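dumping this here before i forget
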Amino acid sequence: MSVRKDTDPVVTGIAGRLSALGGRSPEEIIILWLCLLGTLGVTPFLIARLAIGDILLAAVNSLTILGVALIAARVWVTREVRPYNAILSIFYPTIMVTGVHLEGLVLLGWAYPTLMVPFFLLSPHVALGIGLVALISLLPPIVRGALSPVDAGTVIVTLSLTVMFAWVFAVETSRQRRSLHTQAYSDPLTRARNRRALEDTLRHGVDPGPLAGKAASLILFDLDHFKQVNDEYGHETGDALLVELVDTINERLRRTDVLFRIGGEEFVVLAIGADAREAYQVAEDLRALVEGKRFTDHELAITISLGFAEVRANDTASDWLKRADLALYEAKRQGRNAVRCHDAGSFTFQ
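structure:
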């Protein structure tokens, strides 16, 4: 994970803002695009209505543009998605329903794109709820409008099908996204989270992030003499050993701890809410637990070495990980089957 140095060039102005889009999350980009498209779609109608003196609908158009502009600005500046995804999902249908009630069925065409918006931003079931509420709100002007029963029924059915098609698509897309996320961020052998998941977690949590000002520790550990297990019993036994080890470690970890596999026999525990003393207790419990257990059908006795470091106020993710790695190296240098802490440039038992 890269850390910008003071000597790195800083891009400013419009060019800097455009290049910054590359580092934004997909959720941010979707909200920004929906705001931009909404503004581009409504602005011509605002101009036309001001020209013909339709002040009421011009005010509605102005409110729409102002609302999405404020949402886009907040997302752009803060880079936060919540609660703006929910606000935008409610804002668009609300403006659409208001316009139909004020002007009549001539604005009903806006229902089709605006009913789709929540399915881009929220969970499928929440988006479905918003869509159904919007549909119910549209029933009075549709029923009272100058449409034949067949035409009114056609409008209601097509709007309902639009919402249901969007819901089905969103459910399937959400399932595929979860599957891809699992494949991308999980170790295929042990099902622990992988190195990419660790890098993303630390980058978003520390550089800076939600861990700022909170206690948290990284515990790095690996198996002692694991190569001997592979050489003597084969890689199949070695793989089985790693799977059993992860299951054993997960039984001890707290609900707030997260386990990652970052190499062949190398693992990391992110202990959220644990200061150095609590992290030492977790690490020592893991060391003793593994030492006292026998693994695989061969009843293998193994040990692990552990190093940990508590996050500091000015830590970057790479700084924090490096200090824990140095502590692990010291534990192995001192004879293995041990726990070491990196603190203020020194190594302690804690």
